[in-house]
Design brief:
This protein is α+β, with helices and mostly antiparallel strands. The chain has one domain: Cyclophilin-like (Cyclophilin, Beta Barrel). Helix content is 23%, strand content 26%. It has a ten-stranded antiparallel beta sheet with strand order 6-16-4-5-14-11-12-8-7-15, with helices on both faces. A hairpin with a 1-residue loop joins strand 7 and strand 8.
Length: 279
């Protein structure tokens, strides 16, 4: 029989997933509306000699949502196997900050690196799991090198059920992305799921937020306390410094905009820049 604590965790996870599903649904509606607007604007009918010509262009899919946080939307939602997804970066949606799309280089992607996230609350340093999540870590390095993360807010903090701070969206809305998406990786990092379908994302984990399988973009979440989540979010780094900073932010609480213990951090935190150090 499930304990009261287990039931509470299940309820918190279910609530988190509902929020993520709502965000994903809203984005789909926005995309459909944009597509209709584009089709209306670009449909050109030329009638001459009894011949009609139609010129139509469709918009691309919407950018990925955060996770853990993003789903951690911290996080993220549906489970997926990366083997069933197209491998590589593909254009998707409108970029929150236009920096282009990376060209994958396997040799460069395998090179180890340390990333320092310089925030308004202090530095958070993590070691990238380049051999386990090469496309993810290569993308993060690319975006950091393009100053994509500079002066962007960490827009979501969860302090109940799961414990993550989500960042990586220049718009601060939770719906912004880099204009491309790519597949999930390293989903078995924490081992086999338990009877509830969850694994423990350990404190100090850096993972991708998403809105479903294969929708990784720029949003990621930082786990400041062990968190039960379905293994749907690519782990791509391990924090070696700054966990205390995340815990201080968490102690300040969230504004509960998405429900109790889920919303913008009351102690506002901004990523000022990101430095990547090779080796």
């Amino acid at each position: 029989m499930a304990s009261t604590k287990d039931r509470q965790r299940a309820l918190e996870r279910a609530r988190y997933e509902r929020v993520q599903a709502k965000i994903a649904k809203q984005r789909k509606v926005q995309v459909r509306r944009r597509r209709v607007a584009v089709l209306t604007a670009l449909a050109v009918v030329l009638v001459g000699g009894g011949i009609a010509w139609g010129v139509i262009a469709a918009s691309s899919s919407s950018p990925s949502t955060p996770a853990a946080a993003s789903s951690p939307s911290a996080a993220p939602s549906a489970s997926a196997s990366s083997t069933a997804e197209p491998v590589g970066y593909k254009a998707s949606g409108t970029a929150a900050k236009n920096v282009g799309i990376p060209t994958y280089d396997a040799a460069a992607a395998a090179a180890p690196y340390t990333a320092t996230i310089h925030t308004s609350r202090g530095d958070v340093v993590f070691t990238a799991l380049t051999t386990k999540a090469p496309y993810t870590t290569f993308s993060f390095e690319f975006l950091a090198g393009k100053n994509y993360f500079d002066n962007t807010p960490c827009h979501r903090l969860t302090t109940s059920g799961i414990y993550v701070l989500q960042c990586g969206d220049p718009t601060g809305s939770g719906s912004g992305g880099p204009g491309y998406q790519f597949q999930d990786e390293n989903l078995n990092y924490f081992g086999a799921p338990d009877s509830s379908g969850s694994v423990t994302y350990k404190a100090g984990t850096v993972a991708m937020a998403n809105s479903g399988a294969g929708t990784n973009g720029s949003q990621f979440f930082l786990v400041y306390k062990d968190s039960p989540l379905q293994p749907n979010y690519t782990p791509f780094g391990t924090i070696t410094k700054g966990l205390d900073i995340l815990q201080t932010i968490a102690n300040g609480g969230s504004d509960n905009a998405n429900g109790t213990g889920d919303g913008k951090p009351k102690l506002a935190v901004t990523i000022e820049s990101v430095t990547v150090t090779k080796g």
